[in-house]
Automatic annotation (TrEMBL):
Domain of life: Bacteria
Organism of this sequence: Heminiphilus faecis
Cofactor: FMN
UniProtKB keywords: Electron transport, Flavoprotein, FMN, Nitrogen fixation, Transport
Protein name: Flavodoxin
A Pfam family of this chain: Flavodoxin_1
Chain's role: Low-potential electron donor to a number of redox enzymes.
């Protein structure tokens, strides 16, 4: 597996916990799990694969700590890196579900990174997600509020897909 860094933003700890679960499934050491609130964009430099996670707040908005971090990332050349995105949301907010995943994906297109880890799964009930772009969900969408029982199998499916897609 390529050198992997996990960067997450989390307001009430949900996405932070998921970041740890992903780390276990991808064999990422604790030192390579980063809270974006305490990180600088240049901290992504040592990694080949960036796993980026945000919950969604407001009405389809980024988790608060992501704003500055994403601004900084956008300005970097990430051409030699691969990016996989995950998000936590609440699918009863039925037209903004996991919007932050779509924002991160769209904002980082200009960096030249290669995106992996698009995902589709059964059991969702939302009407729309801003993370549905060009016919695919551009990352893993989780609902720890209403569908916690589906999270582990979704995480396993997604991390297996990452392992098969990473180059
Ligand atoms: C005020 C508020 C607004 C929210 N807005 C959205 C939203 O627009 N879309 C969504 O999918 N989830 C939304 N959520 C749900 C959170 O993303 C969800 O509770 C998430 O698990 C929080 O993760 P965190 O503790 O890592 O920040 C909202 C929650 C609150 C309390």
């Amino acid at each position: 597996m390529k050198k992997t860094g996990i960067f997450y933003g989390s307001s009430t700890g949900v996405t932070a916990e998921v970041a740890e679960d992903i780390a276990k499934l991808l064999n990422v050491p604790a030192a390579d799990i980063h809270d974006v609130a305490k990180s600088a964009p240049s901290d992504v430099e040592p990694y080949d694969l960036l796993v980026l996670g945000s919950s969604t707040w407001g009405a389809g908005d980024l988790q608060n700590d992501w704003y500055d971090f994403l601004d900084g990332l956008e300005a970097l050349n990430l051409r030699d890196k691969q990016i996989a995105i995950f998000g936590c949301g609440d699918e009863s907010m039925s037209d903004t579900f996991c919007g932050a995943v779509g924002i991160i994906y769209t904002s980082l297109q200009k960096t030249g990174a290669r995106f992996i880890g698009s995902f589709d799964a059964d059991g969702y009930e939302f009407d729309e997600s801003p993370a549905f772009i060009d016919g695919v969900y551009v990352g893993l969408l989780l609902d720890q509020v209403n569908k916690e029982e589906l999270t582990l199998s979704r995480l396993k499916g997604w991390t297996d897909k990452i392992k098969s897609e990473v180059k």
